[in-house]
Structures are given as C-alpha cells and as structure tokens.
Amino acid sequence: MTSMTSSRARDRPPVDAPGDESFRAVFDREFDYVWTSLRRLGVRDSDREDVAQDVFVRVHRQFPSYDRSRPIRPWLFAFAARCAADWRRQTRHRVEVLGTRGEPASSTSSADAAIATAEDAGLVLRALQSVDIDRREVFILHELDECPMKEIARSLGIPLFTGYSRLRVARKEFAAAVRQLRRARGEP
Question: pLDDT digit string (tens) for 7-25?
C-alpha cells in the first residue's frame, strides 16, 4: 500500500453529476476531518480508507437533503459514527495481520518532540477507546470538534439532555483512562 496521503488524494469517490460541485467542495475540505473522526471512533489504520470511502458514498447519496443552514461537521460526523459502528460489527471476528504499516512518519524536526507528540496522541486515542461509543461520539463532537450540544443532539438524533448526560459521563471516563494510562507509563 502507498503512503496514506498520496493514496487518499488519488482514491477519491467519483463525482459525475454536473450539480455536485458543492459535494466535491465539501469532500475536498472535510476529508481530513472525517479521516480523523474515524480514527477517534476506533477504526483501525488498515481499514480507515475503506470506511472513509463508505462515509462519503453515503454522504453523496444524502447530500441533496442536507440542510445548508446547519454546520456540516456534525452532519458528517453522524455518517462517520454510523459507518464506524458498521465496521465494528463486521470486524468483530476478524484478525489483524501484524506488521502492517500505520500512519506515515511525522515531519517534525526534533525526534524528541515527535516521540512526545506521538505518545500523547496515542494516549488520547487509547483513552478515547475506553469510553463507551455512544458517549465517545458526544465527547469527540463537543470537546475535540467544539460543536454546540444542540447541534450534536440534532445530528446524532438524541435528546438534548441525553447529550449532556453522555458528555458528563464521558468526561469522567476519559479523565480516569488518561490517569490510568499515565500511571502505567510511570508518570505522576
């Protein structure tokens, strides 16, 4: 497999209809957001490209019904969350082959800084994995993507107070997971 950056740029879903310029613009602008969201939702590196394609195929089908007065990212995240859930159901019994390539190496100039950044990112991803998926979705949208709770509830199709409840519990679970992971690494 080629590097993720070059293959992601090449393997874009086809857009043939003349009226789809808006979809193409959203795809070009938000692909990295969906890619990162899928990673945060636990999709393995080796499967993320396929799942991202599924997300945008579904988005393309529903794009004419998108309410342009709403922010695009929570709407896209809802697709990513559903595709990630489908992926989890399909991969329960699948075994990952060891030794496959992950993310490309960072271009950070300092090796120490690159290692620290990678360790911190890994810690955050592992801590996210410990949060229940329904709460993780709300946590990602609110804490990492800075979406207002009203839009999160609307995009995920949950009551507003359920969203706030999930966020409160997710914050506690995430903080506990970070503390545990740091202790495991020998940090205070």
Answer: 444 454 444 444 445 888 9
Q: Which fold has domain 1-99?
A: Rna Polymerase Sigma Factor; Chain: A (1.10.1740)
HEC assignment per residue over the chain:
CCCHHHHHHHCCCCCCCHHHHHHHHHHHHHHHHHHHHHHHCCCCHHHHHHHHHHHHHHHHHHHHHCCCCCCHHHHHHHHHHHHHHHHHHHCCCCCCCCCCCCCCCCCCCCHHHHHHHHHHHHHHHHHHHCCCHHHHHHHHHHHHCCCCHHHHHHHHCCCHHHHHHHHHHHHHHHHHHHHHHHHHCCCC
- pTM value? 0.69
Q: What is the pLDDT of residues 86-120, one digit of tens each?
A: 998 886 645 554 444 555 554 545 655 655 666 67
CATH class for the domain made up of 110-188: mainly alpha
